[in-house]
Amino acid sequence: MNSQFPINQNFTKESLKKQFRLSEFLAEKIISSIAFLSITIIILIFFFVFKESLPIFHFGKSEKAKTEVSSESMPESYGSTSVEDLKPESYGSEPKEDLKPEAYGEPVSQSDLKPESYGEPVSQSDLKPESYGEPVSQTDLKPETYGDVVVEPLTETTTKDSSISEENQHQDKVAENNEGTDQTWSTFLTTEWVPVSNNPRFGLIGLLIGTIKVTIIAMLIAGPLAILAALYTSCFASKRKKEIIKPIIEMLAAFPSVVIGFFALIVLATFFQNIFGYDSRLNAFIGGVAMALAAIPIIYTISEDALSAVPKTYTEASLALGASKWQTAFFVTLPAATPGIFAALLLGIGRVFGETMIALMATGNAALLSSNPFESVRTFAATIGAEMAETVFGETHYSVLFFIGSLLFIFSFVLNAVAEFYVKGKLIKKFQGK
């Protein structure tokens, strides 16, 4: 056989040298350029978001509006014409004295003009206001009583809404004291989100609590369902069932967020309200259930990959020692894939934390501080989606919304980085025995 196919063993440095191929060189450069461009775009997006939120970090007094016009801003004048020299133009030589109104008949003097009278004249002293019954003085007014309830009579002083006037005076006084002063940072740790007011307040505590509440509800629902589904698919389902179950669950990730939000708004809200009988139809629980539907595909896919990556020697050794399939799955396979499952949960949290449309349509959008899961809430992402189009470019409200966006960006970036580099790296080292 060697005589039929002789092998050339005369290898030289030139023959072993990699030949230059233009197509491979271009493909390599294009791939590396796309990767570099993706990283650059992410950095530029974060730079833009953070730059738009920078004005709220500037302490001190802001410049007040000018009410006087300086001499430098006066319009230019041409010539020395004064206002007194300006006279209307005249056309023709006809004097104004010749212009007289037309007269019909003999002229009538003003003294001859008298008002028409109907009947005998009535003097002003005879005119009196009509009265119905005896006149009632303010001192005669007494409060009426209906059982234990006392109703005060209406007078000129009580018809004024004193509460509204006092509130307006208080807001005007606060606005006057804070005029020209940046008070944004002092309101971040409050619970009130009132961006449009004489005294605007940008309390992030209510938004943060609402975001955390919805995230916890969503993960309590999506986490167990997705992990158990991944465990069944990886350890118990046949190959035919696996080919059916996995694409169906992953297909849920292709659903637009607005479709899931609309489903929660129309179907889930009515269904759960009829079951639990709460007052607020849209609340944190409805938003959490809807966001769980969006997070299940991510958690399922990554968990199933982690469970399938467990070496077969682990399961074979467990079964050889007499353990059942369920014992092997729960006490051998699942603990071995814990780092990957933890990474899946982190990515699911990031998906829920930054969700906009579902939170905007299903949570009620009311920043209420309550431990009740059936109360309306407002999240960070929903606040940006609801108010960004109504803000004025460059104002404090505009900058605060971008600051919230930078917080979401940092949170999602940190979660993805931890899940990708630390947790998955730990999983690989565990399987390699390092």
TrEMBL record:
Signal sequence segment = none
Cite the InterPro entries for this sequence: MetI-like (IPR000515), MetI-like_sf (IPR035906), Phosphate_PstC (IPR011864)
Principal localisation: membrane
Domain named ABC transmembrane type-1: residues: 208-419
Answer whether the UniProt record assigns the keyword Transmembrane helix to this protein: yes
What parts of the sequence cross the membrane? Answer: 30-50, 202-231, 252-276, 282-302, 329-353, 400-423
> Membrane topology type, per the record?
Multi-pass membrane protein
Q: Can you supply one Gene Ontology CC term for this chain's record?
A: plasma membrane
UniProt-annotated stretches for the region Disordered: 68-141, 156-178
GO biological process: what's one of them? Answer: phosphate ion transport
| Compartment(s) where it occurs, according to its Swiss-Prot or TrEMBL record | Cell membrane
**Record-linked Pfam families:** BPD_transp_1
Q: Where is the composition biased (Polar residues)?
A: 70-83, 156-166
**One annotated GO molecular function:** phosphate transmembrane transporter activity
Ranges annotated as biased composition (Basic and acidic residues):
84-103, 167-176
What keywords are assigned to this protein? Cell membrane, Membrane, Phosphate transport, Transmembrane, Transmembrane helix, Transport
Q: What does this protein do?
A: Part of the binding-protein-dependent transport system for phosphate; probably responsible for the translocation of the substrate across the membrane.
Q: Which family does the similarity line name?
A: Belongs to the binding-protein-dependent transport system permease family. CysTW subfamily.
Protein name per the record:
Phosphate transport system permease protein
Gene of origin? pstC
